[in-house]
Amino acid sequence: MPAPRKRRPPARVCGRAGGRPGSKPSSSSSSSSSSSGGGGDGSGSFCPPEGRSAPAPPRLGPAFFDQPCIPLARALLGQVLVRRLPGGEELRARIVETEAYLGGEDSASHSRGGRRTPRNAAMFMPPGTLYVYQIYGIYFCMNISSQGEGAAVLLRSLEPLQGQEAMRQLRLAQRKGPTGTLKDWQLCNGPSKLCQALGVDKTFDQEDLPSHPFLWLEGAQEVPHEEEALVSAPRVGISGDWAHKPLRFYIQGNRCVSAVDRKAEQGSPLLKQPPSPITLGLAWRAA
């Protein structure tokens, strides 16, 4: 019989009166937060004890990425993406939604049928390689290569944890016409939005994420909340034979998820198993 799971004591959360990451803040919470802490809509950064500095979470190395595409897409949920800006400020956001693109027979993949082009070369590089491509001539999407010929995981949505004001300014700077206010949960709730918010563009393509000086992943900062679960749903905007394959994964109930699939939430077999942490973060799988 496996040993009982150890539960961590409740963590203090910066800038919020209560609730879990991704939940709607109370009326007393600030609607925006400083770049050094958390709080606001959808934030979930943690405060160190008074008078002490929080230890830096471990950077995820090559071994973490060296796994098949679908397990990697699940394992990425809950991990923290860190972006160090040219001025030295660090932005942090928790991965809450991913999509797996398997290559080969996956008709929705840029590498379907083994297709290799200068654009998708990163998909055939070692696991952990960044694949950043441009859409509509102005937006970017960020992927991470995995095991498998031409396989990669799309980062679809993030939950901002640190540096929300800098993210907001980066987003607004790229808007055309009138600019309104962006709430924290709106900063990274889409693949192109998160690239804007983190200042990620084509210059990051084919770079090694585990060793990059300005973009990397840290292990998740907390164990899963009991009410959280992993949803497996069809990918967004896909047509053809693979349109209904459940290759999109997201954390149920997180406000930063780009598209909620109620049908998948009701019928997903992944929801029938209680969540359990594996490796260094919040990755879940069905038994």
TrEMBL record:
Enzyme's top EC category: hydrolase
InterPro entries registered for this protein in UniProt: Formyl_transferase-like_C_sf, MPG, MPG_sf
EC id: 3.2.2.21
Extent of Basic residues compositional bias: 1-10
One Pfam family cited in the UniProt record for this chain: Pur_DNA_glyco
Protein's UniProt keywords contain Chloroplast: no
Low complexity composition-biased segments: 22-35
Biological process terms in GO annotation: base-excision repair
Positions of the UniProt region annotated as Disordered: 1-60
GO function terms (MF aspect): alkylbase DNA N-glycosylase activity; DNA binding
Keywords for this protein: DNA damage, DNA repair, Hydrolase
Catalytic activity field: Hydrolysis of alkylated DNA, releasing 3-methyladenine, 3-methylguanine, 7-methylguanine and 7-methyladenine
Function: Hydrolysis of the deoxyribose N-glycosidic bond to excise 3-methyladenine, and 7-methylguanine from the damaged DNA polymer formed by alkylation lesions.
Matching PANTHER family: DNA-3-METHYLADENINE GLYCOSYLASE
Similarity-based family: Belongs to the DNA glycosylase MPG family.
Family matches, as NCBIfam families: 3mg
HAMAP family: 3MGH
Subunit structure: Binds MBD1. Binds SSBP1.
Protein name (record): DNA-3-methyladenine glycosylase
